[in-house]
Design goal:
This protein is mainly alpha-helical. The protein has helices spanning 7-15, 24-35, 55-71, 78-94. InterPro entries: DUF4913 (IPR032584).
């Protein structure tokens, strides 16, 4: 015999989303990487095989993953919306060989640790 569930347990389950991919790493390795096929020669586009070592890339790819998880439930426009309004803009920035977070890395030669300084920030006024 099962114990009746409390309303707080039911609300907690309803609030927790059910993800297709358990985390952003699986999303990138099992979906994004096999799906996105581009010429990544370092001059027109680039990528870092250790993308998780770049804070901006991790943040952008996490946003892409969470948007994908949400929009996959919309059978009509979800994936089109995801590609046009999420994936395309983020991938343009991520893969930009001059200004993107992977600009000092190479898909063949690999990751360059700490290639750029963080954005400068002045001390907060008192």
């Amino acid at each position: 015999m099962t114990t009746p569930r409390t309303s707080s347990e039911t609300q907690q389950d309803a609030a927790e989303p059910e993800f297709y991919f358990a985390d952003v790493y699986l999303f990138v390795s099992d979906y994004l990487s096999p799906t996105v096929r581009r010429r990544i020669n370092g001059s027109s586009a680039t990528w870092c095989p250790k993308w998780w070592e770049h804070p901006e890339a991790g943040a952008r790819l996490s946003a892409l993953w969470l948007a994908w998880e949400h929009l996959r439930h919309d059978p009509a426009l979800g994936m089109s919306t995801w590609w046009l309004h999420h994936a395309d803009p983020h991938l343009r920035v991520l893969m930009d060989p001059d200004l993107g977070p992977f600009a000092a890395c190479s898909p063949r030669d690999g990751h360059t640790a700490y290639p750029f300084d963080p954005l400068p920030v002045d001390e907060r006024p008192a």
